[in-house]
Amino acid sequence: MDNQDELRRQRQALKDEMEAADRGEFQAMSGASFVDPKPSEGAGARLRDRSPEGPDLSMVMDIPVRLTLEVGGSDMPIRDLLQLHQGAIVELDRQAGEPLDVLVNGTLIARGEVVVIEDKLGIRLTEVVSQAERLQSLR
């Protein structure tokens, strides 16, 4: 019972805080603070104007991911695959000079071109994929 009463009290305090924010009043309930919204815009303005600090990403910064550069691909029947030998040439579905795909854990994040730096290959990013395109590729 005490736990339910505490939850009701917290819920009511949050509701009061949100109503006060809609009216443009400053109140410090439970130590919370918020940006003063325009009273005429209501809850939509409150959600837009709040500027919470970004998420703390420090815990995920050291997680390793696999970066892959995709030059191109080809579809072929197993019969042709088994006939490949050293020196065989496989035609890819990309034109010469077309940018490579940069994938992180299999998700396209950018496109770029190959560069040589002191006898090592690298990639110069020429286009970073937008968030909308990345989300579309996950579907």
Automatic annotation (TrEMBL):
Give the organism, scientific name: Zhongshania marina
The free-text function statement in the UniProt record for this protein reads:
FliN is one of three proteins (FliG, FliN, FliM) that form the rotor-mounted switch complex (C ring), located at the base of the basal body. This complex interacts with the CheY and CheZ chemotaxis proteins, in addition to contacting components of the motor that determine the direction of flagellar rotation.
Q: Which family does it belong to?
A: Belongs to the FliN/MopA/SpaO family.
Q: Which PANTHER family does the UniProt entry name for this protein?
A: FLAGELLAR MOTOR SWITCH PROTEIN FLIN, PTHR43484
Q: Pfam families of this UniProt entry?
A: FliMN_C (PF01052)
Which gene carries the instructions for this protein? Answer: fliN
Query: In which broad location class does this protein mainly occur, judging by the first location in its UniProt entry?
Result: membrane
Region described as Disordered: spans on this chain: 1-58
Listed A to Z, the keywords are: Bacterial flagellum, Cell membrane, Cell projection, Chemotaxis, Cilium, Flagellar rotation, Flagellum, Membrane
- State the protein's name: Flagellar motor switch protein FliN
Keyword ATP-binding annotated:
no
The cross-references to InterPro entries, in alphabetical order and at most eight, read:
FliN (IPR012826), FliN-like_C (IPR001543), FliN/MopA/SpaO (IPR051469), FliN_T3SS_HrcQb (IPR001172), SpoA-like_sf (IPR036429)
| Topological type in the membrane | Peripheral membrane protein
- Metal-binding recorded as keyword: no
Q: Which domain of life is it from?
A: Bacteria
Q: Where in the cell is it found?
A: Cell membrane; Bacterial flagellum basal body
**Ranges for the Flagellar motor switch protein FliN-like C-terminal domain?**
59-129
Residue ranges annotated as compositionally biased, kind Basic and acidic residues, are: 1-25
